[in-house]
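Run Uridylate kinase through structure prediction, thanks.
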Amino acid sequence: MAKYKRILLKLSGEVFGGQRKYGIDLEQLQIIAQEIKNVKQLKVDVAIVVGGGNIFRGVAGETKGIDRATGDYMGMLATVINALALQDTLERIGVPSRVQTAIEMKSIAEPFIRRRSIRHMEKGRVVILAAGTGNPYFSTDTAAALRAAELDVGVVLKATKVGGVYDKDPLMYPEAKKFKIISHMGLIRRRLKVMDSTAASLCMENGIPIIVLNLTKAGNIKRAILGKDVGTLVKTNEK
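Sure, done. The structure for Uridylate kinase is below.
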């Protein structure tokens, strides 16, 4: 039996790129879609916030001379491309879904409307949320935290390519220590880069736990929703 009735899954743009880390890897997309389908079989409401780093990242653009705000808007549009790709893949395997965007583009997606998102989930549809918050200077992690609070979810699942939260980058430092449980404040104080401080603060203020897990390990999302020990749990206190 699922521990959480409604979840928000945060997918970074990099996971769409697969091994290449850029563009859209269609095989990886199918794997992600199947994982989501397996979760839906638990009768759980699912909202997904997607990143766009596999196509364009505003911060990286700024270092190349692109205005930061313009770069962030470009990144938001990149998330819409990922959202549409995910929607198409989900529906091909029988999972009804809707894309909603923070920037209106009515010919391809619905505008984000909180009550409509909730209604879609109540009808069994996956809601894919794109274009971040619709504002520059805010990350898609912050968008995920904001939408999680608005949609009254039980947990945010932050899907990454590592097994949880570490005291330093485990891809660079094999001796990195993994946290089983850490508080939101601990995440902020240690400046651990798995999630930005604005997003962590929003989750802390609204009492929303975060589970950081490895998306590349099959079944991890489902195990986390069932309440099994997966990845790192970020919650109000460390007890």
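The domain at 6-235 is CATH 3.40.1160.10 (Carbamate kinase).
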